Amino acid sequence: MARDHGRVDGGFDVRAAYAAHGAELYRFALRQLDDGGAAQDVVQEVFLRAWRAADGYDPQLSGVRTWLFAIARNVVVDEARRFAVRPWQRTLTEGPGADVPGVVGIDEAVVDAWVVEEALGRIGEDHRSAIVQTHLRGRPHAEVAAELGIPVGTLRSRVFYGMRALRLAMEEMGVEP
Question: CA spacing 20 to 30 A to 23: which of 37, 58, 145, 151?
Fold first, then answer.
């Protein structure tokens, strides 16, 4: 696959993606890590990984923004783990009270929601409905089954196979479930 001037055959343009999403990815990483230097490193790593994996990117599976934020989430988690193991490697821009960053924050929850929403759109309607009603809305299986006019066992089967399909969709999107 030929790479030229930031563009990979198949349509992924690294420069255009950076121009469109780089600042937003930086803000996401900064909120997660509370360290400007580390946030810059995260953005660089995101686009490096995206460039390396561009030939495997399929716009039919997810949008560029969702794909980049999924990569960013993984890089932020890696950075937070690195800080937890080697806290002395934090930059000197930190002030007092700047402990190891929290891995799960509001911004990561938003990115996770985008990724799950994108993956849910990739599975069948029956499976999606079963997962949304039971897992996301927390409704009892018996209530949902009665509403759909199906046996509880059928609903449980739809949830089980729907979760498998959801995991597969997320793996295809390059997300670590």
Answer: 58
CATH number for the region 121-177 comes to 1.10.10.10
Cα distances from 139 to residues 82, 130, 131, in angstroms, run: 39, 10, 10
Pick from 21, 106, 33: which is nearest to 64 by CA? 21
Give the HSE-up count for residue 72: Cα atoms under 13 Å, Cβ half-sphere: 35
Q: pLDDT at residue 162 above 50? A: yes
Which has the higher per-residue pLDDT, 19 or 6? 19
Say how many Å lie between the first and final Cα of the chain, rounded.
Answer: 29
> Which DSSP category does 12 fall into?
E
1-101: CATH number: 1.10.1740.10
Q: With the C-alpha atoms ordered 54, 60, 65, 70, is the resulting torsion angle positive or negative?
A: negative
Residues 93, 33: contact at Cβ < 8 Å?
no
Pull the structure tokens for residue 170: 């997320």
Mean pLDDT of 144-162: 94
- Name residue 85's amino acid: V
Q: Residue 133 and residue 123: Cα distance in Å, rounded?
A: 15
The overall pTM is greater than 0.90: no
